[in-house]
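Thread title: Can someone regenerate the structure for this chain?

I was given the following input by a collaborator and told the matching structure tokens would be attached. They weren't. Posting the sequence so someone can regenerate them.
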Amino acid sequence: MKIPAVLFLSVLCSVGCLAETRTLTLREALDLAMQQNPDLVISRLDQVKSRDQVGINKGPFSPSVYVGSGVAYTYGFPMSVDGNAPSIAQVKTQWSLYDKPQSYLVAQAAEMVRGAGFAVDQRQAEVVFRVASAFIDAANTARSLDAANQEEASLARAEQLMQTRVQEGQAVPLDRSKAGLAVRQAKNHIDGLSRDAAKSERALADILGLAPGDRVHPAEGPLPTFESTISEQDAIAAALSTSPEIKRLESDLQAKTLEIKSFKAYRQPKVDAIAQYSLFAHFNNFAQYFQHYQANNAEIGASISIPILASSASKAYISNSEADAAKIRAQLAQTRSRIQRDIEDSYDDLRVAESGRALALEDLNVTRESTGTDLARLGEGLVLPGQIEQDRAEEQEKWRAYYDAESAAQHARLNVLRVTGTLELALK
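Best answer:
Regenerated them for you:
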């Protein structure tokens, strides 16, 4: 029992040692996600399968050549083998010249390729949004953690100064207890932010398709402004006309319409081209039962079949496909309504977030001005050094509040770009 435990711990240790923390810019993160995001890779593989389906559906219209043998010993009349006279060698080929149901299936497969392209575009837009959103969260958490560390350092210095005042009899022990509590609360906040930073960096690495345990730390530097340059009404009109989701549903509806036409075309005639070659042998007694014998024999022609009575299954197929088409039409109407509602909601959220950001910045500026005033009064002996440290701690707290408000505004801008379909263009 000890050996498996040791091996298990060794594996865990090796996995932990292999974990890597990368420092990436937003552009580098996006480029990496376009290459190896799991959801995007799966969507592209579905697109490849759709292309292959076109070739599969075109198969009946291409000649298929079969080479084989129907050699057999016969006693008496040369009876057929699998519907053909016994032969030393056979070559057969057959392909469709006219098959309307299959032609519609080929067109349906081609339309599904087009729809798969829209699905890839939709998935790519989702991945870009997820990467940018996770990057904003990770960057904001890193800034907040830095501000929290500075706040804790200021509170620790304030505690030391308060300890000195208590020892000198200039303050009561309760003031020292309050200062110590503030330091411990700041450390607890740092622990929470450290946990959030690790979670956000692991989440970003997961979106980029990195190995389990890897983390992505945002590189220092300004982020894009994510500003939208179009009005709300123009955004609604543009999104309804260019949305990959709507285009994909429209393509699905067109593909389903072609499928219905294929089922309805089952009553039309089908024409196949047929060609065949057979090499006969004397030992099969052909010369004894037929007036003329020749070894080499060939046949070329056409096979025509006209359905007279179709089974009830064809009606069921048509009804089933028409129900699917009606479902897609309902989804189209629902999607258009949702896109318009999402755009209206996102612009409302943006206005609230921008207002909150402006208030947080104003609050920060007031606090910084207050700190500057206390610093000037410190030189005049009107303010104690401990008060300055508390002012600095409060200023870092206001910085964290501003970072949160700035992050909320960035998310709101990002969401506007997402729902209007202009996010990828804004990030180029």
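The chain has two domains: 27-62+99-268+307-426, 63-98+269-306.
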